[in-house]
Amino acid sequence: MVCLRKDHPLAAKATLQVSDLQDNLTIICHPQGHPETRVHLLELLGNAGVTLEDYSCASHPSEVQTLAKEGHGIALIREGTLLEEGLITRRLAGVDWTVDTAVIYGNARHQCVG
Q1: For the whole prediction, is pTM greater than 0.90?
Q2: How far, in Å, CA of 7 to CA of 26, rounded?
Q3: Cα(95)–Cα(62) distance, rounded to whole angstroms?
């Protein structure tokens, strides 16, 4: 999903095209948190013909929304994310991008007692 301000010019569209991301997608997740995810995102965007020039990096999903709300551009977020006041989401036509997540923990630290 694309997260943007309600008053952004692209908000008038019911669905966005991937080409709408060019020069508008200016907020992405900081590479330090999930470097592989960022590389994968850049590959997906590149394969769709979108290149990123100048952008802001956000360390947390709430920071992504803050940057969008403050007018720093648009961002990609997970479907179903609760939005702050003044923001909306729009679907991207023609793509089926997903985010894979894994949880890893030390068995010795988190033993189940039963």
Answers
A1: no
A2: 16
A3: 24
Compute the distance between CA of residue 61 and CA of residue 78 in angstroms, rounded to an integer: 9
Q: Give the residue among 31, 34, 73, 26 at the shortest CA–CA distance from 51.
A: 26
What is the amino acid identity at position 101? T
Q: Are 73 and 27 in contact (CB under 8 A)?
A: yes
Would you state the structure tokens that stand for residue 88, as one six-digit string?
A: 């909306």
> In which domain, by residue range, is 54 found?
2-92
Residue 82 burial (10 A CB sphere; 0-12, 13-18, 19+) = exposed
**Domains in the chain, number:** 1
- pLDDT, tens digit, for every residue of 7-42? 999 999 999 999 999 999 999 887 777 778 788 888
